[in-house]
Design brief:
The protein is α+β, with helices and mostly antiparallel strands. The protein is about 55% helix and about 20% strand.
Length: about 425
Amino acid sequence: MSILHKLPFEWLVGLRYTRAGKGSDNSGFISFISLISVAGIALGVAALIIVLSVMNGFQKQVTDRMLSVLAHIEVFDARGDMPQWQDAAQEALRNPAVLGAAPFVQSEALLQQREGAMRPAVIRGILPEAERNVSDMAGTMRQGRLDSLTPGSFNIVLGYALAGALNLQVGDKVTMLLAQAQATPAGLLPRMRTFTVSGIFEAGHAEFDASMAFISLTDAQKMERLAAPAGLRLRVRDMHAAPQVALELKKSMSGDLVMRDWSKLNAMWFGAVQTEKKMMFIILTLIVTVAAFNLVSTLVMTVTDKQADIAILRTLGASPRSIMKIFMVQGAVAGLLGTAAGVAGGVLVALNIDVIVPFIEQLLGVQFLSKDIYQFTAVPSDLRWPDVTRIGVVAVILSFVATLYPSWSASRVKPAEALRYE
């Protein structure tokens, strides 16, 4: 005996109604409308999966480029600079989640070239040999080497957009002006020092490429008149766990320390991205909702077409509850089929978008992403299974809700009135 024969009769009848029937001239039309409803749910679910995967891909690309310059966690001493930074680094590295530590000094300054062009910049003093433990700066160098930032050399490495704005090349001189004033016979003047451009980097993030510059840690301390580094930069094993690791380090490390993880360093940007993703999810969920509620019209027409069948089932002893279950099964099966097809299609496209998009670009002779704007030409995709699960569950719930009214309406059919004209 097949599995179908073991199912309750409500399931058997509901599954039969889901397929094309021969009960009346309208059955083919109703089955076509049902197929359209399933296709609508599938397209909505697939679109939602693909769009969220592409948005996740863009976020991952930008985050990776930001973290080529930023550290996962920054540690500061609330009392000022950090003279015992080596001890603090050893304490941080005792946490198995921490992979590397490096000291730094950071300040804001104006950079001026000989012709008078001037640009604001964020100046970071680093130890090149330690910087490799916390960032990928060495891999972003377009010209020169990060190792050129030796103590006392007063060399500087500029972002390529910043170097372009100042019309500077490797070997050129640039003057750094700090906001802190110093007393001179002429009065209070900003502290300044001439640096030699020894390298140009491209992080792939417009903000950093246009505003960041690196100098030796020792030179930065002299410019800022600090006796020690301002703090530590840490890299952790899983960047998404950085907030939790920061809390653990706050408890385990000695001293009055202040922790800032990478998401707080760019809180406005990450907040805007999360808000955009939520709004996109809501908007695309409305598309799935419209498709799901097409089931309402399909089931209403089915109920109208099957009134004689309903009346016969009622006279044979079927309860209103059983009649309601029949049409709920029909609508739920349509919703499950649409959701399954949409999940399969969406996952397939999201996993192969690096092949599909170039094919479409070649077919239409267009380029969706300009390298001059986005620093990458391939459409990124980052499929996340929790997103897929959430989308599938929402689609199934909406499909189920869409079956309630037609099913309730079917349970209210009166056998005598339905069979009067049969």
